[in-house]
From TrEMBL:
It comes from the Bacteria. Signal peptide: none annotated. Residues 51-373 form the Amidohydrolase-related domain. This is Imidazolonepropionase. One of its GO terms (molecular function) is hydrolase activity, acting on carbon-nitrogen (but not peptide) bonds. It comes from Propionispora vibrioides.
Length: 380
């Protein structure tokens, strides 16, 4: 058993506990409180005057499939010759030795979504993983965690160069509809023994049956509305990824209880879709009643910048408590893993971060990171 003593614990799901004792056993949080009895055989770590928060969660990255400093041989985030790829699994492309994963856990990010890229109309299956480990199969939290589809500029720019569809936003939407209808027809034919297994159709049926969400890459308001329209037509669970201009249509998201994973905000307006980028988007969405998470989209923004994304959102009006939830518990809820991570409470995985100051101060240093109750990083 491990006892973390003296720190201020931000549980996220409940109160902030000063001068706390945090008990951990067999990789799980056992108890947190200011007056707990410490078992005589506990290994104690004194962190007086430190801050303890849950492990951070980034629910949109390309870690492990867009590896750093390795060249094109290990850039696996897009299958650039086929615009419809629901059967591809990010799981099969992730290298756990990617240096970016080390950057993640040493900076306090302990859970991530790895998703295929946005150059295909249907890019493939996302996965939720812990950021520390040697074998990706042992790091899995949820597989699959959604199917990635891309609306807007990226697939158009990719396939126009190849003289292939799509070349318009109308075509993107039509291709998605065609494949969803094909999956419904496949289901009927399979039941009647008319066809054999089809991995593409099987993946889309998971989406149509509500087992996993559509993770829609959409920056511009009109593209977000197209994703919503398709989700409404087919009864799909939907999360809007990036959501750069979502503040323009916040009420549309709120009335449908559609979550938005916002970011990366620390970026230049390098394409038309980003012209309305503002650090105020998270606050506007929150005020409208939209559940939000904040993302880095690593490697487009380094995964270690997640707390900075939150700090800038706070500066522009997002309450600090909501900002912390947006990179912990709300993110876990959006991913579908909040039964295990996202807050410090008994029974959940003991993923937590010890800081030497307030969570969103630029000068605050990450001193210790624990995943499943094991210390994976010590920067003290």
């Amino acid at each position: 058993m491990l006892a973390i003593l003296g720190g201020t614990v931000y549980t996220v799901s409940g109160d902030i506990v000063p001068n706390a004792c945090l008990l951990i056993d067999q990789g799980k949080f056992l108890a947190v409180g200011s007056r707990l009895a410490i078992p005589h055989d506990a290994l104690c770590l004194n962190v007086t005057n430190k801050v303890i928060i849950p492990g951070l969660i980034d629910c949109h990255t390309h870690l492990g499939i867009a590896e750093e400093a390795v060249g094109t041989a290990h850039i696996d985030k897009n299958e650039v010759n086929q615009p419809i790829c629901p059967h591809l699994r990010a799981l099969d492309g992730i290298n756990p030795e990617d240096r970016g994963l080390e950057d993640a856990y040493t900076s306090g990010t302990t859970t991530i979504i790895v998703t295929p890229g946005s150059e295909n109309v249907i890019g493939g299956q996302s996965i939720a993983i812990k950021t520390y480990g040697k074998v990706i199969d042992h790091m899995i939290m949820r597989q699959p965690a959604g199917i990635k589809m891309a609306f807007g500029e990226n697939p158009i720019q990719m396939y126009m160069k190849k003289d292939r569809a799509p070349s318009t936003r109308m075509t993107i939407a039509a291709m998605i509809r065609e494949n969803l209808i094909a999956a419904l027809n496949y289901e009927k034919d399979l039941a009647n023994g008319k066809v054999g297994r089809d991995l593409k159709m099987e993946a889309l049926l998971m989406l149509l049956h509500g087992e996993i969400p559509l993770r829609a890459h959409a920056h511009a308001a009109d593209d977000i509305m197209t994703a919503i329209r398709i989700a409404d037509e087919f009864g799909l669970k939907l999360t809007i990824e990036h959501a750069t201009s979502a503040h323009k249509i916040a009420e549309e998201l709120a009335c449908r209880s559609i979550a938005a994973t916002v970011g990366p905000s620390i970026t230049a307006r390098v394409k038309v879709e980003l012209k309305d980028r503002t650090y105020r988007t998270p606050a506007i969405l929150h005020q409208a009643g939209v559940k939000i998470a904040l993302i880095t989209d690593h490697p487009f923004l380094p995964v270690s910048s997640l707390r900075l994304e939150a700090a800038l959102a706070i500066r522009e009006g997002l309450p600090e408590t909501v900002a912390l939830r947006a990179i912990t518990l709300s993110a876990a809820e959006i991913i579908g893993v909040s039964d295990r991570v996202g807050s410090i409470e008994p029974g959940k995985d003991a993923d937590f971060v010890i800081l030497d100051g307030p969570p969103f101060a630029v000068s605050t240093k990450v001193e210790h990171v624990f995943i499943n109750g094991i210390e994976v990083s010590n920067n003290n």
